[in-house]
Amino acid sequence: MDTFLALLHGFEVALQPLNLFWAAVGVTLGTAVGVLPGIGPSVAIALLLPITGGLDPTPAFIMFAGVYYGAQYGGSTASILLNTPGESGAMMTALDGHAMARKGRAAQALATAAIGSFVAGTIATIGLTLVAPLLVDLALLLGAPEYFGLIVLALAVITTILGNSLSLGFISLFLGLLIGCVGLDPQTGQARFSFGAMELLDGIDTVILAIGLFAVSEILFAASRARYHTEELYRLAGSLWMSAQDWSRSWRSWLRGTAIGFPLGALPAGGSELPTILSYTLERRLSPHKEEFGNGAIEGVAGPEAANNASAAGAIAPLLALGLPTSATAAMLLAGFQQFGIRPGPLLFETNASLVWGLIASLYISNVLLLVLNLPMVGLWVRLLTLPRPLLFGGIVAFASLGAYTLNYNTFDLALLFLFGLLGFVMRVVNAPVIPAILGLILGPLLEQHLRRSLAIGEGSPMILFERPISCTLILLAIVVVLSPLAVRIWSARADRRASTGAA
């Protein structure tokens, strides 16, 4: 009952005209960002952070959430019509969605993606409403050692899962942790890694690193590959309405995708990529139309799109209740909380109840707005795909530069922005993941803070981390996560040697 009353209060906040306006702005921007290939919600929120400092936190986060949900919706458009995912979670949709477009069924593919996104988003938001207070109760039982173990586990999982190279993933993570140490030591006041530069004494702004590694590097990388990539846009034809057979084949996939996406979105698994892959695999295994997969199976669009949108709601739950980002976009939302001087966690539900429940209620509203935007106005979003890429890339770089400069009106920040942009470009070229670096910068100071508090509790002994059952379990799980790929590699190598010896 308390949750229901809190949600009603949230709707009172979210339905205020100003907040409704920012929700509409968020979902519109998010849909556009999702449609345009290669930008994604994390880049969009990173670009918006500098210009939202003048807003109150509640409308700002309602807009950010609208961008997050909108990008999940819009990503399917480029995947289906252009075979180029607008954001990473839509990559599985491209497999059968674009095949449907080649067969003249692009409209039906877009319809099942939009309706599935609405169904999954609504059910997952209900799950967020019910699960978030339970996570708060759990978080209140955790102390500094447990939070240290939780952050270590999250960083280990994300670094291990993302990218093809474990070593490059940890180089990215430690780079972020190192950048997070720049500035004055919060306990002793001593300068660290400032190299005599006064501008570095306050540390490196998360927004600068995020815009550089996400936005600038993405544009540089996309521009460097543009001449080698040909695009063929399939036009919409026919009615958007799905046939009875389309509905019959889609609705179970929507529900299964939601059941996969929401819980996996709450885990530190890097975002929506894993849920969409698992959903596609499950749909292919369960479908009686296996021969159609890869050639235009509607289940191959319905399931991954539902999992994609459900994972967004799943990622918001641990962010609000634990202050733990489980995806790149959630990391940007955490940077937004830091920008406003707000710390997510169990106390947030008491100190900023209007913000939390207004944000959750706005997700229900955003889902309805997105359905209205995506079905009748899909032709308008398709026109965005015809924008000349040089104009798009140049505009984003200009907007990123303006946003970085207006943070402190300091040209030093611009130099850092392009330095991090070049660094991110190199990381993308060598296939090193950039998300661990962002999370290292954001979570590094929290990791250091909880470690110092733990050592104070243990009177200087690090054994306090292993004497507490929960923290010990979390740290051991992190070690297992890191070592398991190495163990699998060694086991596979030995198996190959045995097989080659037996063949000889």
β-sheet strand percentage: under 5%
Counting DSSP E segments of at least 2 residues, the number of strands comes to 2
- The chain-level structural class is mainly alpha
C-alpha geometry:
globular
- The domain count comes to 1
Task: Please estimate the helix content.
Answer: over 70%
Radius of gyration: 23 Å
Q: What is the H/E string? A: HHHHHHHHEEHHHHHHHHHHHHH
Distance between the termini: 70 Å
Low-confidence stretches: none
Largest sheet: 2 strands, antiparallel
Write the layout of secondary structure elements.
Layout: H1 2-14, H2 17-35, H3 40-48, H4 57-82, H5 91-102, H6 106-139, H7 144-161, H8 166-180, E1 183-184, E2 191-192, H9 206-225, H10 244-265, H11 273-286, H12 299-322, H13 328-339, H14 348-351, H15 353-374, H16 378-384, H17 389-408, H18 411-429, H19 435-457, H20 464-467, H21 469-503
Antiparallel strand pairs: 1-2
Helix pairs in contact: 1-15, 2-4, 2-15, 3-4, 3-9, 3-13, 4-5, 4-6, 4-12, 4-13, 4-15, 5-6, 5-12, 6-10, 6-12, 6-15, 7-8, 7-19, 7-21, 8-19, 9-17, 9-18, 10-11, 10-12, 11-12, 13-19, 17-18
